[in-house]
């Protein structure tokens, strides 16, 4: 497939991985790209491991299945390394973005990550400080925009503003936008 980005999200039920995967697909549409965003659930309960998937392409996407060889893996909850094989199917040149207080080097050592580019951001801390609760999905979207180079930060912010304004008070929208910008700036990589 021509120039396709495949992203696999790992989170726990209630952390917003499904929302982030589908919202990112919507943002890609705003940039004139083709996209898909969908979840995969195991036991459907709060706190259970789950996956989300996002595909973004310059050409129509003709495949409709889970993502088995992701170019980017986004982990909303670092404890999932102890529960699922986060790197399953990921090629050596994949990018790994993890919500963690660890530096990329510390995370690499702690979870025995070989190869791959590793990025970390304290999305939990950012969400608590900016949103007043632990909801790491929005900051992780900001960090992902930096790591993946798509979508553009301003497109992401514009779309979040448009979509969230119909659901939330202005303060909540502004808090989420601040969290996205902050994660975009604070993500670290090696």
Between the first and last Cα atoms, what is the distance in angstroms? Answer: 28 Å
**Broad shape:** globular
Compute the number of structural domains.
Answer: 1
CATH homolog superfamily: Pyruvate-ferredoxin oxidoreductase, PFOR, domain III
Helix and strand run:
EHEEEEHEHHHHE
Regarding CATH, which class? Alpha Beta
Number of helices: 6
Question: Mind describing the biggest β-sheet?
Answer: 7 strands, mixed
**What is the CA-atom radius of gyration, in angstroms?**
15 Å
CATH topology term: Pyruvate-ferredoxin Oxidoreductase, domain 3
Contiguous runs where pLDDT drops below 50 for at least 5 residues: none
Structural class: alpha/beta
Strand order of the largest sheet: 2-3-1-4-5-6-7
Mean pLDDT: 95
Topology at a glance:
Blueprint: E1 4-12, H1 17-30, E2 34-41, E3 49-57, E4 72-75, E5 95-99, H2 104-110, E6 117-121, H3 123-131, H4 137-148, H5 153-165, H6 170-186, E7 188-189
Parallel strand pairs: 1-4, 4-5, 5-6
Antiparallel strand pairs: 1-3, 2-3, 6-7
Helix pairs in contact: 1-4, 1-5, 3-4, 3-6, 4-6, 5-6
